[in-house]
Amino acid sequence: MQHFLLSAAARTLSLKAVFRMGEDVAYQTFCQLRWPETEGEAVCPRCGCTESYSIATRRKFKCVACHHQFSVTSGTIFASRKLSFTDLLAAIVIFVNGAKGVSALQVSRDLDVQYKTAFVLSHKLREAMAREQEGRVLNGVVEIDGGYFGGHVKPENRKEDRKDRRLKANTSGKRQCVVIMRERGGKSLPFIVANEGDAVPYVRDHVGTLATIHADEGSGWDALHAGWDTKRVNHSVAFMDKGVCTNQAESYFSRLRRMEVGTHHHIAGPYLASYAREASWREDNRRVANGTQTAMVGVAAMASRVSRQWKGYWQR
Q1: Could you count the other beta carbons within 10 Å of the beta carbon of residue 95?
Q2: I need a surface site. Which of 25, 28, 209, 252 has the fewest CB within 10 A?
Q3: Model-level pTM?
Q4: Domain total of the chain
Q5: Phi and psi (nearest 5°) for 231?
């Protein structure tokens, strides 16, 4: 049986089609994404009036009621944009087409923009993706696991100078733990903590009390038995024991590790949460056609308010 990602059903939108449609069609596409309830007809973001004048020379609108002037990207994550609508739509297509992420360097080369522009734009799309995960509660069988990222300490050149990097005294203190909670056959939710056990309060907030939790033998998960039907599997003995496993959580970490090793190389530090949420979104929608994924990210971006973290064009 052919894998979904190899089938024609997975390819419903291409870069070739985006660049062929032209700027006018791309602009109308963003209008449809911003105002789907009125079929692309402008709605004033200030007073909600559905009647407005179109200022065609500047691609702006003027509200009939409050006389406020606005554009299709006003108040969204793309506010104060400098790229054309064709380039913005192409950027979304490039971004979703990467099964294990797309580096900002590749986006900058494909769109012929500065690296800083591609970096900020990519993170804006990740911020829009994360909207889907806000307030999510998981039920049914929920698999939980943790993985550590960052904090790599290079070994000394000479063997006699090398230290045991497994000891806490010889670590950099920058290592962080990504904890994934994944509903079997459903959605997932990642969090960033210092150690696995620190994620228990997040479990209380985002896992239903009637859920069944599957976890590994890590001592950090012992506290889960007090609140949920918790089943454990000892990975040093077996990967699955009587139907208890964390294979779906491991699948998420497989994607995130490949993103770290093969695409982005450095995803630790203050940006780790953004990449973790992106990997979660890609796992949840891995069986969705790329055209539908583009529409999902586009709608989320146009529904997002102006980004505070990514409002500038450089990060320290």
Answers
A1: 21
A2: 209
A3: 0.91
A4: 2
A5: -120, 140
Q: State the Cα torsion 238-242-247-249 to the nearest 10°.
A: -110
d(CA 77, CA 242) in angstroms, rounded, equals 47
Composition of the chain by helix, strand, coil, percent to 5: 45, 15, 40
Does 216 lie in the same domain as 164?
yes
Q: Quick one: 115 and 147 in the same domain? A: no
One domain for residues 156 and 234: yes
Can you give the pLDDT at residue 203?
Answer: 93
Query: Do the beta carbons of residue 151 and residue 174 sit within 8 Å?
Result: yes
β-strand pairing of 229-233 with 176-183: unpaired
Instruction: Give every residue of the chain whose pLDDT is below 70, as ranges.
Output: 312-316
Q: By the 8 A CB rule, do 137 and 90 touch?
A: no
Give pLDDT, residue 312.
Answer: 60
Give me the pLDDT at residue 315, please.
Answer: 55
Region for 132 from its dihedrals, namely left if φ exceeds 0, alpha if ψ lies in -120 to 50, beta otherwise: alpha
Per-residue CA distances from 208 to 117, 183, 186, 201, 257 (Å): 41, 11, 14, 13, 28
What CA–CA distance (Å, rounded) separates 316 from 312? 11
Q: Is residue 60 part of a domain?
A: no
Q: What is the CA radius of gyration of the chain?
A: 23
* Domain boundaries, position 26: 4-34+75-132+292-303
Q: Which residue has the tokens 């012929």?
A: 112
- Are 97 and 155 contained in the same domain? no
